[in-house]
Amino acid sequence: MQSPTLHLSPSRRRFVITAAMLGWFGLAVQLYLILWGRWIDHASLVGGLVRFCSFFTVVTNTLVAVALSCALIDRHSAGYRFFRSPVVCAGITTSIILVSLAYNLLLRHLWTPQGWQWIADELLHDVMPLLFLGYWLFLVPKGLLKPRHVLMWMLYPVVYFGYLLLRGNAFGDYLYPFLDIGTLGVAKALTNALGVLAGFLGIGLVVLMIDRVLGRKAQG
């Protein structure tokens, strides 16, 4: 898995630094809000931390922030190489685009966040997807993706959905209303899950196509 060190110009480095800082800031604000809410309700803070780490949005934005941070540090350990890999970055791009599309199409109309919650909401669902898409488009090497990589990326949402269903069955909390088996029933919830997976596959194929086009242009 190729993972070249990125040689960033000063302006591009500032872009990546800003994007990474915004990513970590958005995650920190969301974590604070969840833990503060648990504190006010006299609920377990550990349970709040587990809940925070259970959201697909949070996990994917964490991958985004880590990948951006690794791009800034010239180290060659396995972890840094992994998150600088064009294949991994393309998979994260696919996942964060899914986060934005799923939220804006399926969830945004369900609530109206205010104050700091609005800031975290916009950062994690709109700002970071655009910033990481820009990072992938303009800074990550192209022409290395294969169709099998799209199938490899699908392991991430498949494993996540499996975890979500097990968690929901154990605690009665499915986190996302369109996957709530208790309310929707098994058939409808699984249909929705398959629809999201189909969306992920579609995004992945578009990412693959863009990679090939830009890769040919770079070689030509």
From TrEMBL:
InterPro entries recorded: Pr6Pr-like
Organism expressing this protein natively: Pseudomonas petrae
Chain segments annotated as coiled-coil in the UniProt record: none
Metal-binding is among the record's keywords: no
Positions of transmembrane segments: 15-37, 49-73, 85-106, 118-138, 150-166, 186-210
Swiss-Prot/TrEMBL keywords: Membrane, Transmembrane, Transmembrane helix
The protein's name: Pr6Pr family membrane protein
